[in-house]
Amino acid sequence: MHRWSMWSINKPLFRGHNIVSHRYFPYCVPGIVLAGVLAAPCDSGAALAAAGPEREPVTLAVVAVNPSADKTQVVPVKIELPQEVTPKDILETGELKLEYNEDRKAYAVYKEAVALAPKETRVFQVVVRDVWFIPQGELSALRGYTSLLLGRFEKSEYFATAKDLADSVVKRLDEIQATQNDESLSRKSRIGAYRYHLQTLAAIKEDLARMEKLLTFVGGPPVPEMLKESPLKSDAPSQTTTWLVIFLIIIFVGFLAGQFFMTWHRRAQVTQDLALVRQAAFPTSQRPPNQEQHPPADGPRGASSPPRA
Question: Are 208 and 227 in contact (CB under 8 A)?
Fold first, then answer.
């Protein structure tokens, strides 16, 4: 019985953290996968430096080896994909099948049984699209919007504060771009850098939002052309969506008011019907018309008795 291991990129970080983690699976030769985990075919400097939406595909591989000289072995094979990879990013899986791991919240490709002849070595690969970079267009839009915001603070008492924020934003954008264009950076490190850059990008957008709020103290809210160019408005609903939501709320409130009115009307009708039934069942008592009127035995109230002789 031999034990194989597979290296997988499941927790890549950046700046001093471990990029590769070691996971064990049955029947794998230790350490044999590390050299081929992220080997990209035709990996050139131009591809890494490219800023377009498409980059050179990335190949993830695992090597299965049967060290026995006289016995055939059947082993499982599995490649865990980074969390950023979705089914639409998978270009080729070969004979491996795709599955979703609920615990890792990520996909993996596998084959349950691989028959290996004595001393046989097989390489299993999955080709995925390179998604570990921030598009150059987004970086340029953020840089341009930062400059536009800073221009609105000229000749104001908040210019120094806005300048510090803008310089910090531009510096971080430059660092992101420089790292993405670094040809010497390994694929594993670039995945870790991408995750770090996502956090940096979120902080940059928070600083730009602070500049927008600060702008209200200078000369009111941002002008319409700035709002049109703002890269921070992507999450805001469109005007059509906003009006649709308003109309749906009005319709819902009207429907609810109609339900309340109908309920009240039915209860009022039931109450009136109950009053009529009660009146019919228990009519008011009246004296018969032929009944004689007899005064009280002591005479009418208030009348004095006749004097005795």
Answer: no
Question: How far, in Å, are 204, 267, 268, 273 from residue 262 at the CA level?
Answer: 54, 9, 10, 17
How many Cβ atoms sit within 10 Å of the Cβ of residue 142? 22
The Cα–Cα gap between 128 and 89 comes to: 6
Give the tens place of pLDDT for each residue, 253-262: 998 898 888 8
The span from the CA of 77 to the CA of 109, in Å, is 8
What would the two tokens of residue 50 be? 């490219």
Q: Which two tokens stand for residue 264?
A: 């009240």
244: part of which helix (H) or strand (E)?
helix 239-281
DSSP-derived secondary structure for 170-196:
HHHHHHHHHHHT-TTS-HHHHHHHHHH
Q: How far apart are CA 102 and CA 107, in angstroms?
A: 9
**In this predicted model, what pLDDT tens digit does every residue of 154-200 receive, in sequence order?**
888 889 999 999 999 999 999 999 999 888 888 789 889 999 999 99
Q: Which residue has the tokens 């049967």?
A: 66
Question: Which amino acid type is present at position 210?
Answer: R
Using alpha carbons, select from 181, 176, 193 the residue that is nearest to residue 48.
Answer: 181
